[in-house]
Specification:
Elements (H helix, E strand, L loop, with lengths): L4 E5 L4 H10 L3 E5 L10 H9 L6 E6 L4 H10 L4 E4 L5 H11 L3 E7 L6 H6 L5 E6 L30 E3 L8 H8 L3 E4 L4 E3 L2 E2 L1 H12 L2
Parallel strand pairs: 1-2, 1-8, 2-3, 3-4, 4-5, 5-6, 6-7
Antiparallel strand pairs: 9-10
Helix pairs in contact: 1-7
Length: 215
């Protein structure tokens, strides 16, 4: 069986990037959502991405971006993928993919079975799907809230037209269980490898990747 691929989101420093690579992460996320404690400026992201260890896929997280937003980001930051974490329509996802020539990952928030329905539509245009916990009511962030959803919702539906990634409240302690229950082959983590908001911990990153790949 293929190795589980891990994405660690919310890179803020060069040490974060190096620790993620050392831990065995396949992807790292650079967060451009200004309201997040994990956000970085375009200049910071450009420096981090340019110095990233070889082999790490650099994913830019954006929320309902305009073309001007994406022009500025992609014009300066050498990204490998765009992650859309807002209310982008199927048409908008296709438009961004065509305009920027980069793979696009669309995030779908899930709290109940009905929330899975849009995945089939987005999977027809996105290169990847991220299935994340739907943000709690009143939350300031669309993701990265450290909240999980009922993984049993995915027990009978594990395959879509596009590859998918599991996110939402994953930690070194529960990621193995999440993988076993959902059949995920890719997982994403942010708060689960932090000692404080936006403070990544190298030991937690390593423990997360090891737990995911031990399944």
């Amino acid at each position: 069986m293929a190795e589980i691929r891990v994405k660690i989101c919310g890179m803020k420093t060069r040490a974060d990037m190096e620790a993620a690579a050392s831990a065995g992460a396949a992807y790292v996320g650079l967060n451009f959502f200004a309201k997040s404690a994990r956000s970085v400026s375009i200049a910071q992201a450009a420096a981090l991405a340019s110095e990233a260890p070889v082999g790490l896929a650099k994913v830019g997280l954006v929320v309902n971006p305009t073309d001007a937003d994406l022009d500025a980001i992609t014009g300066s930051v050498p990204l490998d993928m765009i992650q859309l974490h807002g209310q982008e329509s199927v048409e908008r996802v296709a438009e961004i993919k065509s305009r920027y020539g980069l793979p696009v990952m669309k995030v779908i928030g899930v709290a109940e079975a009905a929330d899975l329905a849009p995945i089939d539509l987005y999977a027809q245009v996105a290169d990847q799907i991220m299935i994340d916990a739907k943000a709690p009511k009143g939350a300031k962030l669309p993701g990265g809230n450290g909240v999980a959803f009922d993984w049993q919702l995915l027990a009978s539906k594990k395959y879509w037209q596009a590859p998918w990634m599991l996110a939402g409240g994953l930690t070194p302690e529960n990621v193995a269980e999440a993988i076993r229950k959902t059949g995920a082959r890719q997982v994403d983590v942010a708060s689960g490898v932090e000692t404080a908001p936006a403070q990544k911990d190298a030991d937690l990153m390593r423990a997360f990747v090891e737990a995911a790949q031990a399944v």
